[in-house]
Amino acid sequence: EGKGEVVGLLRTEEDNLLHACVLAREHGWWSALMGTMQGLRTFYRHTGRQAEWARLVCEVVPQFVDPLTDGPLPGMEDDWSIVTGYRVGLAREARQLDKAEKLQQKRVEWNRQRASSAVALPPDRLSAKQRNGIRTLSVSLAELGGIQRDLGQAGCVQSYNEDYSVALRIDDQRGAAISAFNLGRIYEELPEVRDFDKAEDWYRRSHDLHSKNDRLGRGR
Q: Residue 180 to residues 22, 120, 204, 210: CA-CA distances in angstroms?
């Protein structure tokens, strides 16, 4: 939510988080490993230390990903999507966009399948686990939309629209705000679908959805 001071807290815990990763891998504590990786991902992304992040991802991939299919290894389904998301991010940064899209399409379909029963329920009947499944689908759709936008594909509009709807379903206003902003960019910048009226509409929606505390998000 735009609270940059969190990065400072992560900096003081970096050595502890790295040691926790080693212990988790040694003992097969995969849920703990994922939580630790999420913290390190946030820290390394905000401090530009991508080489160290790439090394960590390469170390954990064999525990979760089938090298022949890029699908999940047996028993690793719950965390496979997260690890695949790490791989997609690294591929995008290396400008391997075709590889990134292929991996992300697989991830979206997996997450959509796992969230299908939850999406059909009224929002007030969703459990915490079901909400998290829907949020995972939302995040993966946003990532796919970004890759398609980088490739100049008009299909990015559909991906971001679906993400926007999914995010609002679980009252994830920040997620919806980000997708609305990206739709504004697409309608402004992508020649195939350019429509300035739609761009303005989506930018306004994004502004209104951002938290009043997130001055950077609202300012953009």
A: 39, 23, 8, 10
Measuring CA to CA, how many Å separate 56 from each of 67, 71, 123, 181? 17, 19, 36, 31
Query: Using an 8 Å Cβ cutoff, are 209 and 177 in contact?
Result: yes
CB–CB of 138/172 below 8 Å?
yes
Q: How many whole angstroms separate alpha carbon 95 and alpha carbon 192?
A: 22
Pick the range with the lowest mean pLDDT from 27-41, 113-127, 147-161: 113-127
CA distance 197 to 16: 50
Span 86-120, pLDDT tens digits:
999 999 999 999 999 999 999 999 999 989 888 88
Please provide the average confidence, as pLDDT, over all residues in the chain. 92
Which residue in 192, 193, 168 sits closest to 180, CA to CA?
168
Closest CA to 93 of 35, 41, 130, 129: 41
The separation between the first and the last C-alpha atoms of the chain, rounded to the nearest angstrom, is 14
pTM score of the predicted model: 0.79
The distance from CA 147 to its chain's CA centroid, rounded to whole angstroms, is: 12
